Amino acid sequence: MVMVDNRNGFSANIARKANEYDNSEEGGNIYYVGIKIYGEMSNPDCPQGGEGGFCNKFDKYGLDSASGTWEGKDFHISTTESLPPIKVNSIASFYTQVEIVEMEFHNFANQTQEGMR
Amino acid sequence: MFEIVSSGSDVIPVHYFYGTTFIDCESEALGYFSKPPESWAIIKDCGEFPCTGPLNFMYSFSGNSFTGNEPAYGWPNLALIPNTPDVSEYIDGCEFLPSGNLWYCNQDELRIGILTFESEDADKLDRSVHPVYVRLLQSPIDNKVNSFMDHVWDGLYTK
Fold first, then answer.
1. 20 to 30 Å CA-CA from A92: which of A1, A28, B14, B26?
2. Which residues contact B12 (CB under 8 A, 6 or more apart)?
């Protein structure tokens, strides 16, 4: 996968259900392999000095932390659920393992073009 | 580059990176590690002080390579750790990045790890024990740790 000019970083999340204490590969760990993440593109977020119809000043990140939860809602909810659906309503798992192999980060500057992180 | 999930109140897993390549990345581009928000310090969430998951995790790198810029964190073996009060400043080989609220650490000689412990009490999901102070004897390291946030009902977890 290739990520370019993201506002929030890429991440993966997994629900370990009954396998919270299972440390095997089948137990629900997270692996990233060969992902490339690029910083800002040359396209401005505030065209024409903010006079271009929109101006979005965001902190930008390439990678967010992954997470593992114990039980909780399914990530793809198929029944009626209380809102918000993005709230997992469960506790974190101690045993989620995250390994990231040969990731590349390209062209991340100290600040964005708009002076943000 | 790096951030941490804003809802990671309890446990953010250690991320192990192998063979990472940084190409034209600048010294202050490491990103930002957010602090546990004070809004977590309420009885139905974390109790008297915010949960401490964001203060107890790390990104651990082995076998890094750098092309183009030579950033300040340009070490083959690197760790990124949060700005944990009474802990991070006392770890050898770490430099603080104020704009990122994080520390970057040379791990060529000293490897950093995370100690994990869990209550095995039967009522660990019904009762709270906090704060727990984790101290390293004969050093100033003194880590104040909270229990998990309650994600469903009012009350706290020992876990």
1. A1
2. A65, A67, A92, B4, B5, B53, B54, B56, B57
